[in-house]
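We modelled the chain as a single entity of 587 amino acids. Its sequence is:
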Amino acid sequence: MLRIHKDKLFLDEEETLLISGAMHYFRTLPEQWKDRLEKIAAAGFNCVETYAPWNLHEPIENTFDFSGMLDVEKFIKTAEEVGLYVIFRPSPYICAEWEFGGLPSWLLKYNDIAFRTMDKIYIEKIDRYYDMLIPKIKPLLASNGGPIIAVQIENEYGSYGNDSNYLKYLENALTQRGIDIPLFTSDGPTHYMLGGGTLPHIWKTINYGSKTEEAFEMLNNYQTNMPKMVMEFWIGWFDHWGHGHITREPKNMIDEFKKILDNNISVNFYMFHGGTNFGFMSGANFDIDYRPTVTSYDYDSLLTEAGDLTEKYNLTKSVLESFNGKISVKKHKNHKFYSVQNSRKKNYGEVKFTKQANLFRNLESISEKYSSPTIKPMEYFNQSYGYIVYETEIPYIIKNMKLTLQNVRDRALVFFNDEFKGVIDRNSNQEIILNSESTNNNLKILVENMGRINYGAQLKDFKGITEGVRLERQFLFNWNIYTLPMNDISNLNFQPLDCEIDDNNPSFYLGTFEVDEPCDTFITFENWSKGHIYVNGFNLGRYWEIGPQKTLYLPKDLLKSGTNEIVIFELHKFGEYLNLIENPILE
């Protein structure tokens, strides 16, 4: 059990440092958990850290899921089996470049709700979630003989708010449900973050990537009588679509890590293994504009997205092997030194597509249809992710009239009388001019949710069209609305591929490929424009030609010996084929 005594940490009464690596169970397939965790232990680490994503565990209000990739109990027990302690971060909000920072989208149905404060509705929903989550975690606490040694109250709260009553409530929400091990907060090393993001008696940890001495000099203004810990040591970074691939030079990272050890500071590497934002779960940032996060969460970590060892891994392991300080390991009969290796990769070659299902011809078979006098966002229809279609009729002649979408979230394809007219996205001021001599006009708008904002002041991020659609000054009313969460595409009616396929013709394309032995592989999409990919019914995630990500990781555990099916939903350009290759491509 972890004990704090003044400025020192003790595990099972031995003074120690925590050397931890971040890994999120929900970003990695369960079949891969043990491999990744063994690699953390083999590097000389004694701990793994993970968040818990509320939006996956309660995807529909009052409907909970702790199965498969969400079996948090199994993940924690697996960590214990390989000899690791666990730092658990169940905060209602996790950030993590994750959709909506881990908050469930159905919270947005409550129009006046305020997040991350003592809002009555928000607190009620947290309590119900914790009533389900915490009883699963309680038996795994170190106080009950389990591996969990510390639990977070809230995540980087000082970056968002300063409601100390809210933090006290969350503290009590945990302790009253039986969390009787050390609690902590984590914030950036600034006055306003530390001043607003924690409580006087709570163990304060900090997050940063460099300037160790300066960071802890700042922390000393708020805490001198508790152990020093970097809860997030940023060893790499994440990428946004349309922006460059970000890396951190290994030597630079190692030099900073040595400073941390030399100053007797505990540390959690963020990330040790990043994994993948499968499906539609990547988040977005907003500063001067909206920037959606890519599907890969490789993070330039110690392990690659596919779990392979990197130069950073080997350097870090070498530093720990020569470290003279005390790093207590979990006493366990199965604990040993693991012989770790990279996964086998395979090039399965080219996949050609033989069948097509046009989105608009299949609309009613894969969506829920609603009628509304006014435009409504996704959340109004209990839709969390994917796409949404708005359709209306315009019964008059149109001459050079400007079409305006008031607050599109995030990217819209406009079709007028079945002809593609252009794209409007939330960062552009693009105008679309419509003309028609007919008095019977059809307008369809296909809107993509590219990820809710996960950090900062713009968290309340409704999706779809949030206010209205106008021709010049006139609002258009009376809409058919089709929700397209894209989580079940089994009802698509695929037809033989047309000889000629028009661009900007949103469609699903079906192909198959043969696998003799399942191995990890990577899907290229250089011939395609924008969409997402399913393999054997599993949504791998989004792709986009603007990069920097140029391949999607396909784990071997999603493949089967024999014939495998791949479906690509493409918005703009039919690329004819994909390739399955051995290594990822990044700009």
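As a brief sanity check on the tokenised model: The radius of gyration is 25 Å. The first strand starts at residue 2 and ends at 5.
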